[in-house]
Amino acid sequence: SSDLWSLIGVPLSVLLILYLVALWLFTSDAGAEWLWAKVEQAMEGQVSTAQIEGNLADGLVLNNMGFRSAALEMRIDKLLLQAAPGFWPLSIHVKTLSLEGIKVRQGKDAPDEQASDGEYDIRAAIETIRLPINLNFNQIRIDGVLVEDPDGQEIVKLDSVDAVLSLADSLEIEMLRLVSSFMDVDTRFSFVL
Hints:
By secondary structure, the chain is of the alpha+beta class. It has helices spanning about 1-25, 30-40, 120-125; strands at about 45-50, 50-55, 60-70, 70-85, 90-105, 135-150, 155-165, 170-180, 185-190. Strands 1, 2, 3, 4, 5, 6, 7, 8 and 9 form a 9-stranded mixed β-sheet that branches. It is globular and about 70 Å long.
């Protein structure tokens, strides 16, 4: 009987505890606030927000979010994130990621992400954002993007970006739409980097 408990009961107890922790993190405001505090702590002051509301399951809202590093400075007026955990394989399913009012300014000390032939190396850029868990994005919506060089000169301005993608061992883009005053590109494809 005790061997059966060791064989079945202990692993099931561990799984139940992990499930309850994930449930708390994703469905409670306190869990979302705790998780955000851990993100701020891990980023050592590079990321901040003026206000946090809600939880990941129903929709977590971050107002006046900022990120600063040697490579860039970014401000986001509003970020809405709605997500759920996936257990097999271990992943996070992002139902909605909506961002409004993004302003990105490249830093004067931005790392050189160019390949040896002088072209931009997207693989090197993606490698810098690789996470130890798979991310699946069902809907990404970005309204208002402004990218500036270190002197504040506009590089690109987009009215909106819509995407469906996944990030695991590679970046897979299933759909991408870019809208600006000079283009309207709507593509539906599967692309793996």
